[in-house]
């Protein structure tokens, strides 16, 4: 018995080395990918255990040399590709894997696959339409605010956020018949309640007329815009001091060509130790006041005014949980399922 186990482990070790030395070639097309994976003769009998995501090879052939060649021809809507937008680029990501054993056993070999494209100038995420997140009107303007998923591809399907995970908050304004508008987050705070009153407990996130204060402490930033009428605040979740979190933001619209100390979006770049203007880094001097006091054209404080082209929006509740809490919850669910066959 012990000898057989030793031999099995030896064979698996040899196969792992063989796969690790495999030759993988990736060709990215407009909306698809072609991956050619050449493997040594030892793996030819195990061709059915080679995967792109959850897809098996489209074609398989044994070469005259005795080696095998697997081809994977699939669109990005197949094989569980993930789509991620960062700045001016769109990323499609997946993994090649060799699975000698079925799931839930982990693969013996994993190789990342990535295709990167320049984002079209007129590209707008599919979630940008009325009905998503918080939609509120102000005059002839309609404001939206919502939590996105980590890939920034759609509205998040849950309001439960593991501690330390990304917490991207999207805001937008429907321009309708207006001239092009610039959307700004003038003030944002986290609070344990959906309503703010004088003396409410708050945690400042954005202040001083558009300065992302949290970017000096944590890995938080404004992401590059895909349109002037929307903005994404990219936060890293942490312990705000209360389990249920409501994000209160004062959203304001402004002339896209007329930045000022009181009308801006600034975040702190740790690499350069300076504040940077999101929409025009060459004019980042407008952010110098972020460590002092920026000129204000309207009163500030918890009781923000809604005069002019601005609106107060609330997002929540967002539930920040520790990773261990999630694991304990899963364990309890598994135990309950095992104890009660009707739950299976």
Automatic annotation (TrEMBL):
Read off the PROSITE patterns from this record. Answer: ZP_2
Q: Name one GO molecular function term.
A: acrosin binding
Quick check: keyword Mitochondrion in the entry? no
Q: Which GO terms describe its biological process?
A: binding of sperm to zona pellucida; egg coat formation; positive regulation of acrosome reaction
**Domain of life of the organism encoding this protein:** Eukaryota
- The signal peptide here is 1-22
Q: Which residues form the ZP domain?
A: 27-273
The record's InterPro entries line, in alphabetical order, gives: ZP-C (IPR055355), ZP-C_dom (IPR042235), ZP_dom (IPR001507)
* A cellular component annotation (GO) from this entry: extracellular matrix
UniProt keywords (A-Z) are: Disulfide bond, Signal
* Keyword Signal on entry: yes
Would you tell me the protein name for this molecule?
Zona pellucida glycoprotein 3f, tandem duplicate 2
């Amino acid at each position: 018995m012990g000898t057989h186990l030793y031999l099995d482990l030896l064979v698996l070790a040899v196969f792992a080395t063989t796969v690790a030395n495999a030759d993988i070639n990736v060709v990215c097309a407009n909306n698809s990918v072609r991956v050619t994976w050449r493997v040594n003769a030892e793996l030819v009998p195990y061709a059915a255990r080679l995967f792109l995501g959850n897809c098996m090879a489209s074609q398989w052939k044994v070469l005259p040399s005795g080696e095998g060649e697997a081809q994977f021809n699939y669109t990005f809507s197949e094989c569980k590709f993930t789509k991620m937008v960062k700045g001016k680029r769109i990323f499609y990501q997946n993994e090649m894997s060799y699975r000698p054993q079925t799931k839930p056993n982990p693969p013996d070999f994993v190789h990342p696959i990535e295709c990167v494209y320049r984002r079209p100038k007129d590209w707008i995420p599919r979630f940008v339409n009325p009905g998503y997140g918080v939609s509120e009107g102000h005059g002839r303007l309609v404001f939206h605010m919502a939590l996105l998923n980590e890939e920034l591809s759609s509205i998040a399907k849950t309001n439960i956020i593991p501690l330390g995970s990304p917490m991207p908050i999207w805001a937008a304004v429907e321009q309708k018949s207006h001239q092009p508008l610039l959307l700004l987050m003038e003030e944002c705070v986290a609070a344990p309640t959906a309503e703010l009153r004088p003396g409410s407990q708050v945690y400042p996130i954005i202040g001083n007329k558009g300065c992302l204060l949290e970017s000096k402490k944590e890995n938080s930033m404004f992401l590059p815009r895909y349109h002037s009428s929307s903005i994404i605040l990219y936060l890293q979740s942490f312990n705000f001091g209360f389990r249920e979190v409501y994000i209160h933001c004062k959203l304001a619209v402004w002339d896209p060509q007329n930045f000022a100390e009181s009308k801006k979006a600034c975040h702190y770049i740790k690499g350069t130790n300076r504040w940077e203007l999101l929409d025009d880094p060459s004019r980042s001097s407008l952010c110098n006041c972020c460590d002092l006091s920026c000129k204000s054209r309207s009163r500030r404080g918890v009781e923000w005014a809604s005069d002019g082209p601005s609106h107060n929006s609330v997002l929540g509740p967002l539930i920040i949980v520790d990773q261990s809490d999630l694991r304990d919850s899963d364990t309890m669910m598994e135990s309950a399922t095992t104890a009660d066959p009707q739950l299976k």
